[in-house]
Design brief:
By secondary structure, this protein is α+β, with helices and mostly antiparallel strands. The protein has four helices and six strands. The chain has a single domain, classed as RRM (RNA recognition motif) domain (Alpha-Beta Plaits), CATH 3.30.70. The strands form two sheets. Strands 1-2-6-3 form a four-stranded antiparallel sheet. A two-stranded antiparallel sheet has the order 4-5.
Length: 117
């Protein structure tokens, strides 16, 4: 019985430091990094672009980036890309809309995710 309780405490201590209430905001509001040639060019000036959840706002994105990457966020700009109509032969379809966040970091801070791609 004592070994079972000891294993439980060891499992709790082995979790990453950023797991908590704020990190759940990060995982629900941030969907993926937006990786294009233009986003790589803007990363050199400290601006990083992420695809975010449709209901995310500037405050939740700011907190998510701060908690997930441990960087200082100076500003957040949001862009909503609306759905677009696409015609395939005789059938009409829609390209899904989404929301992007352009995150400006403090000078000197960077996100390593964009450096290796």
């Amino acid at each position: 019985m004592a070994t079972h309780q000891q294993k439980k405490t060891e499992e709790k201590e082995s979790k990453p430091a950023f797991v908590g209430k704020a990190s759940s905001v990060a995982y629900t509001s941030l969907l993926e990094p937006w990786i294009t040639e233009k986003s790589h060019a803007s990363a050199a000036t400290g601006k990083y672009i992420f695809k975010v959840h449709g209901e995310a706002n500037k405050q939740t994105v700011r907190r998510a980036i701060k908690d997930l990457y441990q960087v200082t966020v100076v500003g957040v700009n949001m862009v909503t890309i609306h759905p677009k109509k696409r015609v395939y032969g005789r059938s009409v379809g829609w390209k899904a809309g989404f929301k992007k966040a352009i995150v400006t970091l403090k000078e000197g801070d960077k996100i390593e995710l964009f450096e290796g791609v």
